[in-house]
Amino acid sequence: MKKTALPSPSPAMLAHSEQLVQLITAQMQQSKPVLPFVDFMQQALYMPNLGYYSAGLDKLGKTGDFVTAPEISPLFSQCIANQCQQVLSSLENGVILEFGAGSGIMAADILNHLDQLQCLPQYYYIVEVSADLKQRQQTTLKNRLSDELFTTVQWISRLPEEPMQAVILANEVLDAMPVHKFRVEQNYIAEFYVSYQNEQFEWQILPTQNTLLQTTVDNLRLPIGYVSEVNLLLEPWIKAMANILEKGLVLLIDYGFLRSEYYHPQRNEGTLMCHYQHHAHTDPLILVGLQDITAHVDFTAVFDVAQKNNLQIAGYTQQANFLLASGLLNNLTQYETHEINAEYFQLSQQVKTLTLPSEMGELFKVMALTRELDLSLIGFS
Ligand SMILES: C[S@@+](CC[C@H](N)C(=O)[O-])C[C@H]1O[C@@H](n2cnc3c(N)ncnc32)[C@H](O)[C@@H]1O
């Protein structure tokens, strides 16, 4: 393993990582001597039982590797619930469908808040690719919801076939999708592959065999030598949602930029980031299966695919603007009392983390895609 200033994993964690490394290298030997980085990232994150999201590691929260907005504060999910309420009120038998529900805390806080607002969805569906997280979500929701509310939650392994009226939610899901890493060369596009030599994974940069990657990167018109990533899974993912959404909203929250900023000449080494025990670094080839690997979201790509699939772009803004417009401060004042109140103080600190430009307020964006909705969405007003 390469030397870094990161905390050392325990022997048990190293053994876990070694098992995953063996499976990945066995596959490399069988099929090809090198693996496209996109496949390496897929296996490092999602290999059943061993990948970062599939194994029983802590991952989210203070004891894990990174913290997401719903883990920081219930106020975040209450704002999402306020936006859901506005849309659910204009749907018939509307449901909520959440992708990648993490620990399940956002689902719990949304359902409890919608219950208070007397605007529950018919069902709260969760699509989760990690069996371990699904189990964790079940425990969280059982502990935090009444029995009656718990019955509205259903885990589904694929999207329903019938068209539905729905609010579809995905917080920090797009950034967890495997990406292709590329470099622009004089007459071709090179792709980053991974090989295994001297007991460690190494980069191999070779002409890509992938014609979709080639044309997608050609269309970006980037200078020679430019290195970045592209998420080719985005299109089928949005298309699948567009195919089943009869009426409603898709709300995507993630960190990223529009294309001009994403592929800015100065951002010429891409946006890949890894998170291990609250340390951020840029080497995805180490700590295999023990660290999160993410890439920022190109929101222009999301716009383009949404438009191609007849979804309207109903809003795009920074997280801070969305939360403030969705009632963040009203939600906070519910906790205000005449006496000095530790809970209120803590929640005020959480508001800062969610909204300050130096924290999550500016880098995180919220995008709304709609179909057949004649509403001015509160979060973007
Ligand atoms: C960074 S975590 C975010 C978790 C949670 N949404 C939160 O904000 O705390 C990414 C989540 O997305 C899930 N995920 C990644 N790709 C997915 C996909 N294609 N469909 C459903 N879930 C996915 C992961 O298993 C994980 O639960």
How would you describe what is shown here?
The mean pLDDT is 94. By secondary structure, this protein is α/β, with parallel strands linked by helices. It has a single domain (43-177, 231-380), classed as Rossmann fold (3-Layer(aba) Sandwich). The longest helix is centred in the N-terminal third of the chain and has 20 residues, at 11-30. Helix 4 (74-88) packs across helix 5, helix 5 runs parallel beside helix 6 and helix 9 (234-244) packs across helix 11 (299-308). It contains 14 helices and 16 strands. The chain has helices at 11-30, 37-46, 69-72, 74-88, 105-116, 131-144, 147-150, 211-220, 234-244, 259-262, 299-308, 319-325, 328-333, 342-355; strands at residues 35-36, 95-99, 124-127, 153-155, 164-171, 180-184, 189-197, 200-207, 227-230, 245-257, 273-276, 279-281, 292-294, 297-298, 312-318, 364-371. S-adenosylmethionine is lined by residues 53, 60, 68, 70-71, 99-102, 127-130, 133, 171-173, 176-177. S-adenosylmethionine binds next to helix 3.
Question: In brief, what are we looking at here?
Answer:
The chain has helices spanning 11-30, 37-46, 69-72, 74-88, 105-116, 131-144, 147-150, 211-220, 234-244, 259-262, 299-308, 319-325, 328-333, 342-355, and strands spanning 35-36, 95-99, 124-127, 153-155, 164-171, 180-184, 189-197, 200-207, 227-230, 245-257, 273-276, 279-281, 292-294, 297-298, 312-318, 364-371. The protein has 381 residues and is α/β, with parallel strands linked by helices.
